[in-house]
Amino acid sequence: MDYAAVRRKMVENQIRTNRVNDPLVVEALADLPREVFLPEPLRGIAYVDEDIPVGGGRVLMEPLAGALILQAAEITPSDVVLEVGCGVGYNAALAARLASTVFALESDPLLAARARETLAALDVLTVSVVEGPLPIGHPAQAPYDVIIFGGAVPEVPEAILAQLAEGGRLVAVVADASGRGKGTIFLKTNGVISRRVAFDAAVPLLSEFIPAPTFRF
């Protein structure tokens, strides 16, 4: 398969036609080989406009949703970025094309190891994959100029919002149990968090953020 040709088609048909017009985001998507983040049997579907299961209850997010998140984050070359739930590391690698440093938080050791291996093979040197529970973020390297999520959440925990730098942006798909959600931008200004909806997205919930069921008697 000519992956470069399929990647160009993905950018033209899925990305440019759907309000993604940041030239740096488009360039990163056009250049980064998405297929190498997947095991060999799945590489043929790397560029479909669907979420791809990668194990551990996680998915490689469809290209458009990831692109919209990155565009909304308005990442600059001096930014330090945290991705919560990096999975196989693809979106972290995209963010690395835009930022100074990326910390990619993953709770699944197998996915974290796969992400490290792929990023090393691609010589992506500005991403550090760190392991830990997702809902508490990665306070050791806080504050962050930008925080993004590798899946949807019912709500963003206060513990993670607290890791946002002054003037920082957090972009998350806030969704219900069905995955129907809103791409939401959280801004920190003078210590106060504001939020606004930027786009619609259907992204699977990160399992660690799903509230435990309650029982009524």
Automatic annotation (TrEMBL):
Q: Which Gene3D superfamilies does the record cross-reference, listed alphabetically?
A: Vaccinia Virus protein VP39
Name the Gene Ontology biological process terms: methylation
Keyword Zinc included in the entry's annotation:
no
Q: Where are the transmembrane segments?
A: none
Keywords for this protein? Methyltransferase, Transferase
One GO molecular-function entry? protein-L-isoaspartate (D-aspartate) O-methyltransferase activity
Which Pfam family, an example, fits this chain?
A: PCMT
Q: What organism does the record attribute this protein to?
A: Defluviicoccus vanus
InterPro entries to which the protein is assigned, alphabetical:
PCMT, SAM-dependent_MTases_sf
Q: Which GO terms describe its cellular component?
A: cytoplasm
Under which name does UniProt file this protein?
Protein-L-isoaspartate O-methyltransferase
Q: Which family does it belong to?
A: Belongs to the methyltransferase superfamily. L-isoaspartyl/D-aspartyl protein methyltransferase family.
